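Hi Y.,

Following your request, here is the sequence exactly as I used it, all 253 residues.
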Amino acid sequence: MPFESAVAAFAAALCDPAAPPPAATRGRRGRADARRFAVYRNNVAVGLIGALEARYPVARRLLGPDAFRAIARAYIEAHKPRSPVLIAYGAAFPDFIEARGPYPGLSLLADVARLENAWVEAYHAEDAPAAALADLAALDAEVLPNARIALHPAARLFSLATPAASIWASCQDGAESMPPPDRGEDVLVARPEADVSVRVLPPAGFVFAKRLQEGARLAEAAMALPDPNEFGTHLVGLVAAGAIASILPGERP
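Below is the corresponding structure, written out as C-alpha cells. Let me know if you'd prefer a different format.
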C-alpha cells in the first residue's frame, strides 16, 4: 500500500471506534492488534477532548466535567482536526452545542462558548496598533461625519439572546457574585495591548459598531441610534476599548 494511502487509512481508523485496525499495521506477531491500536485511538480522543476543555473552561464548569466530556466526545466524532495545531481546533463547538436542541440552558451554554472561542481568537489575532483617544480628538469636526473606521483585528462583536457575558464574567477568578440580568446582551471582545477584554455594550452599541464594521460613515452609523447625537459616546467607548485600529477621515462637506 502506498505510504499516503496507509497514513489515510490509519487516520480514518483512529477516528472511527467501530473500524478495525488498518491492514497495513502489524503487531509483534505480524498481524493487526486491535488492543494495541485502541491505545492510539484513545490517546487521540483524550487529546482532542483536552483541547476543548482548555478552550472552553467556563462552559465545562457550567455543564459539569462528565456532561462536558460526553458532548465533547460527540463533537470530536463529527469534527476532525484540519490542522496539527490544536489551538485552532474546536471553533465550531458553540454551534454544535446549540444544534443539540432548542433548550434555554443549551442556548446560554452555546453563547458562553461563543465568547470563550472569541476570547481565544482575539488572543491569537494579528498584532496591530489601536487608535487612541488622542487620534479621535485630533480629527477636524468637519470631516468627522464622513469618517470611517477600521476595527482592530482582535475585535469581535456579538448580539446575544442570553446574558452570556455576565455569566462568563461571574466565573472569572476574583469576580464578585452577582445575579445575571434576565435579558440578552450585546458584547464586544477586544484586545487592547496584550489583555483580552469582554464588555457588555450599551443599548444600541452593537448596531452602531456593526454598521461601522460594515463600512458605514459615522453619520450613517449614528442614524441607527435612538438619538443620533449620542454617537460620540459610543465612538469614544469603542476607541477606549481598543476595538478600533484606525479612523479614516472623510471628505469635507
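The chain has eleven helices and five strands.

Thanks again,
Q.
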